[in-house]
Amino acid sequence: MNKDTFDENWIQIRSQSTHWWSLMSEFDLKKVDKAENKLDKYATLLQVKYGYNRKQAKEEISGRLAELLSKQTETDGEIADKSSG
User: Fold this and answer.
1) Is the pLDDT of residue 80 over 60?
2) What's the pTM?
């Protein structure tokens, strides 16, 4: 997981965050919106709210992002199939 990938997908991550982590609030997400390093701030919030260490927080974020991107790819593929068929 790198900062650029996180930043590129921040809107999608943000929209799923309260679903993924019930302790993550809109107030928390606004803090991330304003942060220069969104990935770092997001990981810190997971550490504070869930007691993860830094490695666990980043692994959780990576896993959720991979799942999100996988679903996006599937959806994009289905749309392409429908439009070509």
Assistant:
1) no
2) 0.83
Question: With the C-alpha atoms ordered 20, 26, 28, 30, is the resulting torsion angle positive or negative?
Answer: positive
| Cα–Cα distance, 85 to 43 (Å, whole number) | 43
Nearest to 10 by CA among 32, 36, 31: 32
Q: Residue written as tokens 């919030």?
A: 45
Q: Is 34 helix (H, G, I), strand (E, B) or coil?
A: helix
Residues 6+ apart with CB under 8 A from 85: none
pLDDT in tens, 43-71: 999 999 999 999 999 999 999 999 999 98
Contact 54, 43 (CB under 8 A): yes
